Amino acid sequence: MSAEPAKFVWYDLMTSDAKAAESFYQSVVGWNTQDAGMGDRSYIILSAGTTMVGGLMPIPEDARAMGAKPCWNGYIGVSDVDAYAARVTAAGGTIRRPPDDIPGVGRFAVAADPHGAAFILFKGNSDQQPAPVAAGTPGHVGWHELHAGDGEQAFTFYADLFGWTKDEALDMGPLGIYQTFSTGGAAVGGMMTKTADMPATCWLYYVNVESVDAAIARISHGGGKVLMGPHQVPGGSWIVQGLDPQGAMFALVSAHR
């Protein structure tokens, strides 16, 4: 296994209406979109400027048959998908889709931690890593937040699996401890035991935008729903959490209200 901590390398949305979702996120985030040209499957590439940051696709029929709902997924880059899938199950997690190949792209497996929060293991055909961008760059994911079944147990699971380390721990009073974490360098996310109003454990990805207030107006205009915010967090950034028109939860962050 690599000595370097594993990092998030890609994000994509599974949705019930790909064209409507594409239009929504183009407006709200400002992403450019284009068809990936994968032939046997529909997959839209989402780009910030000329930099590809994620994708968008219809919920696969087999997943739809199993009751899958629209959701965002984070891909964690690993050195060997099959070996890491075995480590997930050994640590008490589950593999929801066994390792498989995406022709011309790489190998992946859909996994979940011991309390059910999903993530994707991924190894690309190329060892090229995403180019680093300045913190807060619009259109890029700026924060990764786990609403966990048990925050401390979740951190242990991900730290042992991926080499992540603790950063600052924030005491949020009745809401418990918010543990920020690093994948090498500055903190990239936080973990907390989920609150009662969060229906299930999940990863929530915060996309950088220029202005939270302006984005909120675009969310409402596009048929989405604001769940929380605008809210200022430690460090001064402003956040908003919402649902897109198809029901997928997403979040935005900005240095500016």
Protein traits:
257 residues, 2,3-Dihydroxybiphenyl 1,2-Dioxygenase, domain 1, 2 domains, 8-stranded mixed sheet, VOC domain-containing protein, VOC_core, Anthracycline_SecMetBiosynth, Glyas_Bleomycin-R_OHBP_Dase
Mean pLDDT: 94
* Secondary structure tally: strands: 16
**CATH architecture of the largest domain, please?**
Roll
**First-last Cα distance:** 42 Å
Q: Your description of this structure?
A:
With 257 residues, the protein is an alpha+beta fold. It has two domains: 117 residues, 2,3-Dihydroxybiphenyl 1,2-Dioxygenase, domain 1 (Roll), CATH 3.10.180.10; 114 residues, 2,3-Dihydroxybiphenyl 1,2-Dioxygenase, domain 1, CATH 3.10.180. 19% of the residues lie in helices and 43% in strands. The protein is built from five helices and 16 strands. An eight-stranded mixed sheet has the order 2-3-4-1-5-8-7-6, with helices on one face. An eight-stranded mixed sheet has the order 10-11-12-9-13-16-15-14, covered by helices on one side. A hairpin with a 3-residue loop joins strand 6 and strand 7. The chain is globular and about 45 Å long. The model has no long low-confidence stretch (mean pLDDT 94).
Write the layout of secondary structure elements.
Layout: E1 8-15, H1 18-29, E2 32-35, E3 44-48, E4 51-58, H2 61-65, E5 71-77, H3 81-90, E6 94-102, E7 106-112, E8 118-124, E9 141-148, H4 151-162, E10 165-171, E11 177-182, E12 187-193, E13 202-208, H5 212-221, E14 225-232, E15 238-243, E16 249-254
Parallel strand pairs: 1-4, 5-8, 9-12, 13-16
Antiparallel strand pairs: 1-5, 2-3, 3-4, 6-7, 7-8, 9-13, 10-11, 11-12, 14-15, 15-16
Helix pairs in contact: 1-5
